[in-house]
């Protein structure tokens, strides 16, 4: 659910160049740790201090390292080209349609506070666009591409979905259907039929009583699919509406999860690709040329090499 198939080479993980300014070897020296046991005994506070951040700070680190021991020395994506190089067990992979809204919500570049409290987009059209394209990239890189690679390698038991529920409520000036939509992690309460996610202040606003019946219906269906998969390696038609088909090598099919208010559960045909994304971004009528390039730069913070490719197609130089 909203996962990642990215991995880093050992060289990148130990590099002093680029985005990874704190390589593991330098951190070990700062900690004065002589061996693995000493590193494991390090306190969280000392570890944060070595990275130059406090307990509330954030530092991006390579999460999956191609060390040649735990993971192959080649990339995870290359591994999916053959069933000889990955464990071909049944898998469901999916993302939420508006993944990035969860992260854009609190960005002072994209949202503002009315009366010092109520969040709202500075420019609704741009907020939608700057959330849409990186969210599509998340889907392409975490669902469509790896599913296609696994299917082409001969692995049949691959299932894909997109979660689209976006009926969050309003609270005065803040409209969470816009601000969060089908954002990162919003599917979790639906899978477990427990609508508690962001805490007692936000949950009652996001999950309004008026959407309770349709939410419960969607939640029961999703929970049934997930449970059937856990019990028998296939989600089948446990949701009571559609058989969830496998992803085929000759074309992708995703299960789209949404409430009956917005089309309900249905099948989505076809793959999204970086080429389609770049073409859509280039022609997007919501955006000025400067805003298009701003989105490319935004992508570049996350995936600089990909941003350079998209920028070239769109007519922007990624920063």
Walkthrough of the structure:
The protein has 319 residues and is an alpha/beta fold. The protein contains 14 helices and 10 strands. The protein has helices spanning 10-13, 24-31, 36-40, 44-51, 76-79, 101-104, 124-152, 176-179, 188-192, 203-206, 212-232, 274-283, 289-302, 304-314; strands at residues 8-9, 65-66, 91-96, 111-114, 118-121, 158-163, 170-171, 174-175, 253-257, 266-269. Strands 3-6-9-10 form a 4-stranded mixed β-sheet, covered by helices on one side. The longest helix has 29 residues, at 124-152. The mean pLDDT is 88.
Question: Layout of helices and strands, plus pairs?
Answer:
Blueprint: E1 8-9, H1 10-13, H2 24-31, H3 36-40, H4 44-51, E2 65-66, H5 76-79, E3 91-96, H6 101-104, E4 111-114, E5 118-121, H7 124-152, E6 158-163, E7 170-171, E8 174-175, H8 176-179, H9 188-192, H10 203-206, H11 212-232, E9 253-257, E10 266-269, H12 274-283, H13 289-302, H14 304-314
Parallel strand pairs: 1-2, 3-6, 6-9
Antiparallel strand pairs: 4-5, 7-8, 9-10
Helix pairs in contact: 7-13, 12-14, 13-14
C-alpha geometry:
globular
Helix content class: 40-55%
* Main β-sheet, spatial strand arrangement: 3-6-9-10
Reading the helices and strands in chain order gives EHHHHEHEHEEHEEEHHHHEEHHH
Q: What are the key terms here?
A:
319 residues, alpha/beta, four-stranded mixed beta sheet, 10 strands, globular
